[in-house]
Amino acid sequence: MTIGIDKIAFYTPNYVLDLVTLAKARGDEPDKYTIGIGQNRQTVVPNFEDVVTMGANAAIKIITADDREKIDLIIFATESGIDNSKSSALYMQTLLELSEFVRTIELKQACYAGTYGLMQARDYVATHPGRRVLVVASDIARYGLSTSGEVTQGAGAIAMIVSEAPKIVSINTDSVYMSRNVSDFWRPVDRQEALVDGHLSTDIYKEMFLTLWQRYQLKTNQQLNDFAGFAFHLPYTKMGKKALDQIINEATLAHQQKLTHHLKASQKFNREVGNLYTGSVYLSLLSLLSYATDLKSGDKLAIFSYGSGAEAELYSVTLQNGFENHVPAKMTQQLLLKRQLVSVNQYETMFKSQLYDSHININSNAVKDTKLFQFLGWHNGERV
Ligand code: CAA
């Protein structure tokens, strides 16, 4: 049975900060942000949105009546959830008006959890033919004002429906994965902003990618030339280049050019949004599918998922016949183009108003009020 991603959608809030403006305000060289780190703009989250409203706004774009009948399980991956007990997937069930006869669960392992969700979804469909799983990866990446990680903040949600006979990509059963207890990035329960040793994280990421790439080759006998492209977890877009640079010489010269071209395609959306933790690698996949117009059905793409702490997984997907008709490229481009630019002052005010002590439980207000959700939502491909 072929199983994989049947539908995918992305949502990010309507406000955006230009990073050249931020660099000037912080006394940094703009080129450091746009070239050295590889980020142009970042999403700013208003205090009436959170991971649940973002996740629901992504999922509402793809869920049909048929899905409502066939979804048995909602998997919600996040590291910036709204409750320490109750799963964000339960709120999704209400907002999306899904059946009571579903399983709902939230997963956490830094930026990696969405990939585990996808693997669980694939395995569930394999043992329950005809049934479907909704996987949501939604996060707000918050490092703090004037911190070294500030330039890599961002937010957004990816929603995917996993089914048999998928329309976009099949998920191959060739994963290699590893876990190692490292303190490169973490967020103790009393903190709303992440603690990060960005340089250590970059080193661990590169090392885990190289280790898993070698392990993958041993396991599958595949070479770099067998892949049309990569989608990487992108805490900042330069990270993908740093990882790929370690192995790119293994490909023929012509293929190196293709991989480089496709790497740029896979970074485009992420450059405009920033880090979205769990959803980042799947936004990169969506970006690759949206901009690499020379991809064709049967092509194989490698996916590298990394979550600080640290856990990583490398696996491949195969493009399905007619996949290009089901990739929401224009809708995603429009979403990003239509965002409202905010000044550094406005961003700082919005950032502070997101923190718990400056507003009253916005999360439950937002998710209980269906009218507010619809206000934040989409109708016929347009932001309402
Ligand atoms: N023009 C062009 N390039 C310039 C430049 C200029 N004027 N000035 C500097 N640069 C380059 C530097 O040479 C450097 O390039 P290389 O990395 O290729 O050497 C780059 O810009 C960055 O410079 P620095 O290393 O000096 O910058 P920094 O010390 O401020 O750190 C950072 C940058 C590490 C990305 C920092 O912003 C950070 O820590 N961000 C957070 C990263 C993160 O989240 N890591 C966790 C990864 S996993 C994840 O997403 C979390 C999870 O799992 C939950």
Mind explaining what this structure looks like?
- The chain has 384 residues and is α+β, with helices and mostly antiparallel strands.
- It is built from 14 helices and 17 strands.
- It has helices at residues 19-26, 30-37, 51-59, 65-70, 88-95, 113-127, 198-220, 238-245, 253-273, 280-291, 329-337, 344-354, 362-368, 370-376, and strands spanning 3-11, 15-18, 41-44, 71-77, 103-107, 132-141, 154-164, 169-171, 176-179, 185-186, 195-196, 229-232, 300-307, 311-319, 340-342, 378-379, 382-383.
- The strands form four sheets. Strands 1, 4, 5, 6, 7, 8, 9, 12, 13 and 14 form a ten-stranded mixed beta sheet that branches. Strands 3-2-15 form a three-stranded mixed beta sheet. Strands 10-11 form a two-stranded antiparallel sheet.
- The longest helix is centred in the middle third of the chain and has 23 residues, at 198-220.
- The two termini are 39 Å apart.
- Acetoacetyl-coenzyme A is lined by residues 29, 31-32, 35-37, 79, 110-111, 148-149, 151-152, 185, 196, 198-199, 201, 235-236, 238, 275, 277, 306-308.
- The site of acetoacetyl-coenzyme A (CAA) has 26 residues, from helix 2, helix 7 and strand 13.
